[in-house]
Each structure stands twice: as structure tokens, then as C-alpha cells.
Amino acid sequence: FVGALTVDSRPQGATVFIDGKLAGATPLSVPAVPAGDHAVRLEREGYRRWTSSVRIVAPGQNRVTASLER
Where are the domains of the chain? Predict the structure, then answer.
């Protein structure tokens, strides 16, 4: 089973890693992520690294929004 994942951040343009693998930059839409728990990490120069565990529900649209801190 897979679900879709949308990742956004304030500010945008953060690099997104899902389970340690580069996935792209925010705003990011990943159409097929396996259901279950995944580690999401966002990095942007000049900001603190942001990490979270995300549970993907399938089928469905899952969303993560991160506020990055300096």
C-alpha cells in the first residue's frame, strides 16, 4: 500500500530527505510513499535541521509542514 506525501516548509527551498534518501526540495509532492512510519528530515543553509517521524496512511494524502528555525 502507498500514500501520497506533500512536504512544505517556511521558508521554502529546504532539502528533503525521506528515510535518509534525498527526495527533493520544498515544496515537494511525492506521489507514492509506502504506508507506515518514515523519517523525514529537512535541511536549509542558515537554519537548524528539522526532523520528524511521519506515518503514511494509504490510500490518501499525507502532509508535513515544517517551520525552520535559525
Answer: 2-64
